[in-house]
Specification:
By secondary structure, the chain is α/β, with parallel strands linked by helices. Helix content is 45%, strand content 15%. It has helices spanning 10-27, 48-56, 68-88, 126-131, 134-150, 165-181, 203-217, 226-234, 244-259, 277-284, 309-319, 350-360, 396-412, 416-421, 426-444; strands at 4-9, 41-45, 115-117, 155-161, 186-193, 220-225, 292-300, 334-342, 371-376, 384-392. Helix 12 (350-360) links the parallel strand 8 (334-342) and strand 9 (371-376). Helix 6 runs parallel beside helix 7 (203-217). 48% of the residues are buried.
């Protein structure tokens, strides 16, 4: 039984979160399920189209595309799923009907009460998502309360993006509200940072305002950069184009490698651990102010040559930059890291991987034991995989870039009227800038 509740917010959060749960279920069918057999997850969006697509998807029943009967069968299933989804959107402000049939949706993962849908988007505006979503937030909190009444909640993981209005505004509002609802539970945010080149005109404001809220309310923030995901996926796809499914799949596997406990995991006392999220967070967050964590992942699917753990370690280390892109005079340092290697020969290669990663990663001098390497079983259909979770100063590159661009826009007075109109004033901006200035300065001090 799971003691962790997942909340997926916005188009990106719902898509990535659903892919993450499916990846975990390939390894352990009981992962994320409560005592009633249903997933302990809440899907939240201000528009129903993405949630509807998730509920309609059913890869377990996929059939060949060429058959007319197959197309008719898919159309029939889609029609039934669409009717079920429409019925779930016709009740309360959260957009769900009470008394939904347990097990509806793909692979019997979700039921109607787990879906919260608002009325209309948030205009790519943090203020609109944060201040204009009271009914949606209350519906989310009510669903989490139900989970807390049925079983203990040791942690809540919120998956959302930072570029748009729903992911940044509503996502950070959900995190702040959950902090008040569950003050003693671990609260983790999985935040997807937008491309530095720009996705929306307001993304730099949204990123800064959201990160400042997460820095204040969350216990840990797992930061995933769209630019880094695109570079890593692009290096391996030379013939076909890169789709959102490729990026979401890479992110889901990386997150699964970090959060999915292997079978028969034991702690140092030899006891079987039920959840390793608490241990992971306490390992990679040595100080309360240092809660922005990065994650890198490499895997081998068993095609062709056997897996070489040294190559996987090298690939992961290449994803961790050695120098700051914002200030090339400063080297990138890691304060603490946890590595999980999954494969048949994992235990025999434990020390070899530890030596390799210690040599490649630039750890701070003040930490006598900065790296912990663990071995475990496979990751779904992947035979061999290596995941590195590190508290590293490399996070100051995307954060510093967004902060600098947001300050430039703020000094010019650009787009501020759209935030004032939705309840975010100048004081909120200056507070967010001050918070992130301190974060960037703290991380940059490691390399001085």
């Amino acid at each position: 039984m799971s003691d962790v509740v997942f909340v997926f917010v916005g188009q990106c959060g719902v898509t990535v979160g659903d892919a993450f749960l499916r990846q975990c279920r390939k390894h352990d069918a009981s992962f994320g399920r409560g005592a009633d057999g249903l997933m302990r997850a809440v899907l939240v969006d201000t528009e129903p189209k993405v949630v509807r697509r998730v509920l309609q998807a059913d890869p377990a029943k996929a059939v060949p595309r060429a058959s007319k009967a197959s197309r008719a069968s898919r159309a029939s299933r889609a029609s039934r799923a669409s009717r079920a989804t429409r019925s779930s959107e016709s009740s309360e402000p959260g957009g769900n009907a009470s008394g939904g049939t347990p097990g509806c949706g793909p692979l019997h993962m979700y039921q109607d009460q787990q879906v919260v849908v608002g009325q209309g988007g948030r205009g790519a505006n943090f203020a609109c998502g944060f201040n204009g979503s009271d009914a949606v937030v209350e519906a989310v909190l009510e669903r989490v309360r139900r989970e807390a009444e049925s079983a203990t909640i040791s942690a809540v993981v919120v998956v959302h993006s930072l570029g748009g209005g729903t992911g940044s505004g509503l996502g950070s509002r959900v995190v702040a509200s959950l902090r008040d609802l569950l003050p003693s539970s671990l609260l983790a945010s999985v935040a997807i940072l937008p491309h530095m080149s720009g996705e929306t005109p307001l993304q730099h404001y949204n990123t800064c305002l959201a990160l400042a809220t997460l820095q204040r309310c969350a216990d840990v923030v797992f930061c995933f950069e769209n630019d880094a995901l695109l570079t890593d996926v692009g290096a391996r796809k030379t013939q076909k184009g890169i789709s959102f499914d490729d990026l979401n799949g890479k992110l889901a596997r990386s997150l699964a490698g970090a959060l999915l406990p292997p079978r028969q995991q034991q702690d140092r006392l030899g006891r079987f651990a039920q959840s390793r999220l608490w241990d992971l967070v306490t390992s990679v967050c040595p100080a309360e102010a240092w809660k922005l964590v990065s994650c890198w992942h490499a895997e081998h699917h068993g095609r062709g040559d056997p897996a070489d753990p040294a190559k996987l370690a090298t690939h992961v280390c290449k994803q961790h930059p050695r120098y700051s892109a914002e200030n090339t005079l400063h080297g990138v340092c890691a304060a603490q890291a946890v590595c999980w290697f999954r494969g048949s020969s994992a235990h025999e290669l434990h020390q070899q991987l530890a030596d390799k990663l210690t040599k490649e990663l630039n750890f701070v001098a003040w930490n006598p034991s900065p790296l912990h390497v663990h071995a475990g079983g496979g990751l779904g259909t992947t035979e061999t995989a290596l995941t590195l979770v590190a508290n590293s100063s490399c996070v100051t590159d995307p954060v510093g870039h967004a902060l600098r661009r947001a300050k430039e826009m703020y000094a010019a007075g650009a787009f501020l009227h759209w935030y004032r109109r939705n309840g975010t004033c100048e004081g909120d901006f200056t507070t967010a800038f001050e918070c992130l200035d301190n974060v960037v300065a703290d991380y940059a001090s490691w390399s001085l």
